[in-house]
Every structure is written in C-alpha cells, then in structure tokens.
Specification:
The protein is elongated and about 165 Å long. The longest helix has 38 residues. The protein is built from 32 helices and 24 strands. The strands form 5 sheets. Strands 1, 2, 3, 4, 5, 6, 7, 8 and 11 form a 9-stranded antiparallel sheet that branches. By secondary structure, it is an alpha+beta fold. Helix 24 runs parallel beside helix 26 and helix 26 packs parallel to helix 27. It is 44% helix and 16% strand.
C-alpha cells in the first residue's frame, strides 16, 4: 500500500488544531464573560438553592403535620433495667424512619419531650411519625408505664422566653458519661424544675430528637475523623522530630560532648562527624481508636437537644435555663452537652439571636431535627433520657399535686405545711370529698392532735359539721380561742363529763330515747351491741346476758315509743330502768301491760314463760354495769333524763360542731364511750332514709383511738368500713397501731385516704412505713424533729407521697382568727346549745324519773282500757 495513503492529510490536521484552539478560546471567553457577569451565575445558583430549599421545607412541613404524640406515665414502682431501656431506644430509632420515601431527612425523627409547667412535676411525651404509633405504643416497660394518645399542647404566650440548643463538645468520638440508674439520671433535671410556679407563668421544656443518619453521612464523618487523626499524627511526628533535632544539637554543642571528642583517638575523630539523627516516623492510625464511638454502625444515632424556658416574671426564665444547663452537666465526661453559640461580654449569640433564632423556632414548632454534625451518640449514652422518671426519682410536690389550703374553703381539708424546693412555705390540703378516712400515728406530744385540731377548726369555719371525741378534754381549751366567733357559736355544743368547777354543768342523753325520730329496733340493737362490745359479751360466752338485755331494751323502747306518741317525751324510760324492769314486779307488770300490743308474740311469750323461770342471781351480769353507771353522779345525770338533748343524727344534718369529753378511761367510761360510738354508727347508718346527694358531710374526730377501741373495737372498725357510704368520714389518732385491736387496725389501714405519722420508736413506726414499702425507712422517720409528719394523701384518685410536712401550729396558722377574750362566751354558748344544766338538778330529776315513767304507764294503761275491750282468750298477765 502506498505510504501516502495512510499518512494524515495536512489539511485535516490543520482543521483539528484549529477546532481545539477554537474550543479553548471559547472556554476562555465564556469564563471571561462569567467573570464579568458573575452575579448572573450567583442568581442562578441562588434560585436553584432557594427552589430546592422551598420544596424540601414544604415536604418536611407536610410530613410534620401528620405526627402523633404519646404520653407515658410511670407508676410508683417503675424500675426498669438497662436492657429494657436499650430496647426502648431501638424502638425510637426504628420508628424515626416510619415515613414515606419522599419525606426529607429533617422530618424523619422521634422527639422525647420533657415538659414542666407547674401543674406536673415532669411530663414525658413521645412525638413521632404517625406510621410509628403502633411501634411506639407497645413499650418494653410492661404494666408499670401507661401509654396514652396525647393531643396537641398549646401554650399561652409568656412575657419572657429564652431558648438554647445544646451540642456535644469535647472529644467528638468520646462517649458521654455512663450515668447509673440509681439515683435516676433525670433527678438533676427534675430538681431544676422543682420550684416552677404555674401562677407566674413558669414553663420549661426539653426536646431530644433522635434520628437515624444515612450511611453516606456516617462514612463522610468517618473520613473526616480519620483525616483529622492523620493530620494530628503527622503534626505530632513533625513536632517530635523537631524536638529530637533540637536535643541532638544541644548535646553536640555542649562542653561535655566536645571534651569527649578531644579525648577520643584521632581515628575516631577523623571518622566522626555530626551525629545522624533519625526523625520519628508517624505511627499507623488505629481506626477503632481514632473513630471511638463512631467505629461501629449499630445503634448509632444523631440527636438534637433543644431547650426553651419561659415565664411572666423577669429573670425566672434565664435562671431556669441555667439550672437545666447545670442538670445536663451530669452527663458530661470527655464529651459533654454545651450551649451552642458565643458569648461576648454580657451578650450571648445563640438560639435567641439572629440568624439562628428562626431555625430554632421552625424546628421547635414543626418537630424537625437538624442536628449539628458533632451530635452523634450511641443509644447506651442516652439511657437516662429514654424512659420516664423511675421509682428512684424524687418528684417535687407541686400546687397541682397538693392544693394550697385556703381558710374558709369547704372543698379543702388542711393537712400540713409544705416546704418547697425554693424555701417557700405553704399550707397544703386535700379535697374534702376524697378524704374519706384518716389515720394519724405518733408518740405523745408529737403534734398529731394539734394537726387534727387545725384541720377540724378549718373545717368548722368552712361550714362543716363534726364531732371531736377527746377522753382527756385537753383539746377543748386549746381549740376554743379559734372557734370563739359569733358565726360559729350557734353551732357549737360541748358535752363535758369531767364535772369541773364548783357548779359543774352537764348535758343529757337518753340512749333509748325516741323523741328525735329514732327507730325502736335500731336503738335496741345499738345499745345491746354497745354493752356487748364494752363487756366482751357474745353468743357463746354470755348468751343469757344478751338475751336479758335485749328483751329489757325491747320493752323499754316500746314504752318510750308510747310516751312519744302520747306527746310526753319527758316520761321516757332510761337505761337505769332496766333494773326496775328486771327486779320490780309492779313496774314490770305495768310496763308489759301498757305496751303488750306493741310487742311481737315471741317477745310476749318470752316474758310470760321464760322470764318467770330465771333465778334472781341471773340478773347480776346485766345489773352490775348499770350499777356502776348509776354510781357516778355525772353518768347518772347524763344518762338519766327521759328527753335527753344529745342527738348525733340531728348534729350531722344541721352541721353542728360537737365536742365530747368523757370523764376518763375506766370501765364505766369505756361503757359510756361504747354507747356513744355505737349510737354514732347507728345515726350514720340511719341516713339511708336521705338521698345520697342530700346527705350533709360530717366528720368524727377520735383522739386516743387506743382508749376508744378498748371500749368499742368492732364499732370503730365498722365505722372505717361503712360510714363512707353515708358521707360520714372518720379521723382517728393513736400512739401505737400495734395496740389497736386487729379488726380496727386492718380496717383503718385498708381504707385510709390519709395516713400520717410523727416521730416515734422504730418498732412503733414500722407498721406505718411498711404501708409505704419502707420508703422512708422506720429509722428515718423515728429521727424526725418534733411536729414533723410523713403523710400519704389521696388527690384526684392518686396517692401522693409519703411527703414530709410540718405540723400546723394553731398560734401561727390561725393567728388572725384567735379570739381568746371570747373563749368564756364560747363555753357558755356551747353549754347552752347542749342545754347543760347544773349537775345537782339533773341528778334530782334522774332520781324522780322512775316515778314519772310509772305514772305515765298507769295513765296509758287506763286510757287504753277505756278505749278498747279485752279480746276473748287473750292473756294479758305477765310475770
């Protein structure tokens, strides 16, 4: 082939070179044009970026609008393990990706919201994609955490608001501090918001967003870290080489080295020179050491931590943010949470300033996550924030948990004085409708009676009715100055059986009286049960005594019913007429004849056939306790009046304030106390004739339960079991739970809405703290100061506490309501309301009562004989 055929044509070569030159020239001209018109290029790039950013924001906002929220409420015994918390973190990370493919990365996250606004100690919420609700609703925490769907929270604007974003500072590959679960890692944050006050508009919220980062971003971060590690190692190697050369030069220039050279032989000198220095070689970079927590892909997430504090009071929001920042320092180690921004003197450039404020508010409002590049953590580092507060976290007592006591408010019941975290003292209360039964325990002089008195006085001033039973009478002079108000004097009655003073005055009560509308069978049952309880009678040990007493009471109740129907209530029989009925043939014949038509056939048959067969000594078991009652002038005067004044059912319905002071705790006093207690139980149960909504709340206060239950254990136990239904709420105080009979102790512990204890011996306190799982321990309670109480309370159906409260002192709490100069007038009014009369006068009337009853029976029998004819074959004769 011809060589000229294969060689390139000169013209073609020239054209190719010309095209290349033209292309280069065109590029140069284009670059020159762009250089001259750079703003057009910048506008194009800016327009493309703005369009892309608008589209991303629009899609992210559309996805954020479909988020859901769950609220987690932990029980008092919530105590998760590390594995349970870790599994919850895995759920959160997985749920963050439960969104469509088109959703931008910033909207793919799950937020943990820790919120405090003064109404709750710390609300724990989870917000995430709607598609992750099923995954997030089922927690590994079990039944100790309740998960409920939560609505949107809307906050009213506050006057002062501060914002902050926290980033990880320190070594970027180092983990946060491994905080133990006991005490709760959330405790510093709970303490930081413990003194929030809702009335001042205080608000604090922490939002932790968790996001699974894309693999490419993690790889890019690793490349950056490895490059930084290599540069750091090379820099260290160069610095080390420089130090080695400097050290070698100083050695060779030293006098010692020069002398060594002079003393050495010529051969070694001529063959020597300056020492050869080998610089250190950069060591090989270990990937695991350089990348630290970023070395592995598993359970690695990006996080965003935002904080906002607000208040209507200047300075409180800033102080709250500083407290939260201090609380986050607990998680700091070689890596720590630090506030993002710069400080210039008194100013801080951060989330509260331009240009980052708009970004903060957008992420806060939409729940989006756009974390700094340093915020990489492993799930194990976040264990303290991945769960609600546990049982190891001390939650503060807020005004929403325990309402503040307001004097005169009928819906509140005073409980004590609470010292807040900010040092503020406030009287706290429970809601009266929820305080059904209350028990106070503690040593003598510890303040339990003072606390009960403060509560009773507040309830009385609020218009409530009560009866305060105090065997020692000390409570009456203590409370009198604070009850001596004109508005209360018409409602207070004093039943004082101590017979103090030169001319003592005593009220009166007929346990068998029917003039206030009592039902005869209820009166008989209550009186018989009172005797049986005080004297420990039962069907096995004293069947004859119970039969005799019940039969006698049935007849006397029928006599009293006839007297009330005849309009002669002053002629009713009393307990002391049981003796005449059993031993006086004439009185028995008159009584049985007069009320034969009111007795059922079985009762009439018993008196006709069984009673005549009983020997006289069979009556002693019934007559002996009655003789002891009659031997005391006070009890004889109090119980010996036919138309006794005392009627606890009327006191309940008319909101009376009744103070009962029995004379002591001997056998006779125990029997009298048993009669009073059983009558109270009867009266409360009789309220079944009133619709539930119309029953007036009434509160019996029993001081010294040991004394009272010694007389009527079954009665007191029944009160703690039944009286709630009739809106009669019992409050009891005792020194020792162990001294109470088992039925009483079990009933009051089972049903107590409020359980309180002062200091005491460890053995005495242990039964109370056992109800609190020994938190606080008996040793801790036993060493409390005087007038301090640990109290567990019921508010909105939830148990609060035990919390430590200072016992209210009347002279401090009610100083503005004390009227000591009117105490004497109050006592006169209380005696007048109880219709108390001189003791001698009542005893004289009691002595004449048998004659009045006999006269009534004679007149009643004659009246019936004149209006009715005997029925043929009917036996009207009684033994």
């Amino acid at each position: 082939m011809d060589a000229t055929a294969t060689a390139p044509h000169p013209t073609s070569q020239a054209l190719g070179v010309a095209d290349a030159i033209g292309l280069v020239v065109g590029l140069v001209r284009a670059v020159d044009w762009l250089y001259g018109h750079w703003y057009l290029l910048a506008l194009a790039i800016g327009a493309a970026w703005a369009g892309g950013e608008w589209a991303v924001r629009h899609l992210a906002a559309q996805a954020s609008a479909q988020r859901m929220a769950l609220e987690l409420v932990a029980s008092r015994h919530f105590d998760p393990g590390l594995e349970e918390i870790f599994r919850r973190g895995v759920q959160l990370a997985r749920a963050s990706t439960s969104m469509p493919w088109w959703v931008p990365r910033r909207a793919k996250c799950v937020q943990i919201r820790l919120r405090a606004d003064g109404t709750r100690a710390l609300r724990y919420r989870i917000e995430g994609p709607a598609g992750g609700e099923r995954l997030l609703s089922v927690t590994p925490f079990g039944p100790d955490v309740t998960v409920t769907r939560a609505g949107r929270i809307s906050d009213a604007p506050r006057t002062h608001t501060v914002r902050a974003e926290f980033i990880l500072r320190g070594k970027p590959t180092a983990p946060l501090r491994d905080v133990p679960l006991t005490p709760d890692p959330l405790q510093p944050l709970v303490d930081a918001v413990a003194d929030l006050r809702a009335e001042l508009g205080d608000l604090a919220e922490i939002r932790l967003a968790v996001q699974r980062a894309p693999k490419w971003l993690l790889r890019a971060r690793r490349v950056q870290l490895m490059a930084a590690a290599r540069r750091r190692e090379q820099r260290e190697a160069r610095r080390a080489a420089s130090w080695v050369r400097q050290d070698a030069g100083r050695i060779e220039d030293s006098l010692t080295w020069q002398l060594q050279q002079l003393l050495s032989d010529n051969k070694s000198r001529t063959g020597g020179g300056r020492r050869l220095v080998m610089p250190p070689v950069p060591r090989r970079i270990d990937a695991g050491e350089a990348l630290g927590k970023l070395a592995e892909d598993d359970h690695l997430v990006r996080v965003q931590l935002l904080v906002m504090c607000a208040s209507n009071t200047e300075g409180r929001a800033e102080a709250r943010l500083a407290q939260i920042q201090a609380g986050l320092d607990v998680f700091g180690g070689r890596s720590r949470w630090a506030m993002r921004g710069w400080r210039a003197g008194p100013w801080r450039l951060g989330a509260d300033r331009w240009p980052t404020r708009r970004s903060f508010e957008r992420r806060w409002r939409l729940g989006q996550c756009w974390p700094p590049r340093a915020n990489w953590t492993r799930l194990e580092e976040l264990t303290g924030l991945l769960k609600p507060p546990t049982m190891h976290c001390r939650l503060p007592v807020l005004a929403a948990d325990l309402p503040t006591f307001t004097f005169g408010d009928p819906t509140l019941l005073l409980q004590g004085i609470h010292h807040g975290p900010d040092g503020r003292r406030r009287p706290v209360a429970t809601y009266a409708a929820e305080t059904l039964f209350e028990v106070g325990v503690g040593k003598a002089g510890g303040g339990k009676t003072e606390r009960a008195l403060a509560q009773a006085i507040g309830w009385a001033h609020a218009g409530g009715g009560l009866v305060f039973v105090d065997p020692h009478r000390d409570s009456w002079p203590r409370a009198a100055p604070f009850l001596a108000h004109e508005a209360l004097m018409d409602r207070i009655a004093l039943i004082d059986l101590n017979a103090l003073g030169p001319r003592p005055r005593v009220s009166s009560w007929n346990p068998l009286g029917l003039h206030y509308g009592q039902q005869p069978h209820e009166v008989v049952e209550a009186t018989a049960d009172a005797f049986a309880s005080a004297l420990t009678w039962d069907d096995a040990s004293a069947p004859r005594a119970l039969t005799l007493l019940t039969a006698a009471l049935t007849v006397l109740a029928a006599v009293n019913e006839a007297a009330c129907r005849a309009g002669r209530p002053a002629d009713q029989a009393t307990l002391f007429h049981i003796r005449a009925l059993l031993t006086d043939h004439a009185f028995r014949h008159a009584a049985l004849t007069a009320v034969a038509h009111r007795l059922d056939p079985e009762t009439r048959a018993w008196w006709q056939t069984v009673f005549p067969t009983l020997a006289p000594d069979a009556f002693a078991v019934v007559l002996n306790p009655l003789a002891r009652l009659a031997a005391s002038p006070v009890t004889r005067a109090f119980l010996g009046q036919g138309d006794g004044v005392y009627d606890i059912r009327t006191a309940m319905d008319t909101r009376m304030i009744v103070w009962i002071c029995p004379g002591g705790n001997g056998p006779t006093d125990r029997l009298l106390t048993s009669l009073l207690a059983r009558d109270l139980l009867r009266a409360a149960r009789s309220r079944k004739d009133t619709p539930e909504g119309e029953r007036v709340p009434f509160r019996p206060y029993f001081d010294e339960l040991i004394t009272l239950t010694g007389a009527a254990p079954e009665t007191i136990a029944a009160m703690f079991e039944d009286l709630r239904k009739y809106r009669c709420h019992v409050h009891g105080m005792t020194q020792l739970l162990s001294r109470l009979p088992a039925p009483v102790r079990q009933s009051l512990l089972q049903n107590a809405s409020t359980l309180a204890t002062t200091a005491g011996s460890v053995s005495a306190i242990a039964p109370v703290t056992a109800e609190w799982d020994d938190d606080p321990s008996p040793q801790r309670v036993a060493t409390m100061e005087r007038f301090q109480h640990y109290v567990s309370l019921t508010v909105h159906g939830q148990r609060i506490g035990p919390v430590r409260l200072a016992g209210p002192h009347l002279d401090d709490l009610y100083a503005d309501h004390a009227r000591p100069q009117q105490a004497t007038a109050l006592e006169r009014a209380a005696h007048a309301n109880a219709q108390a009369l001189p003791l001698d006068q009542l005893n004289e009337r009691a002595t004449q009562q048998l004659a009045r009853v006999t006269a009534f029976l004679t007149a009643h029998t004659s009246a019936r004989a004149g209006t009715t004819r005997p029925t043929a074959g009917r036996d009207t004769e009684f033994g």
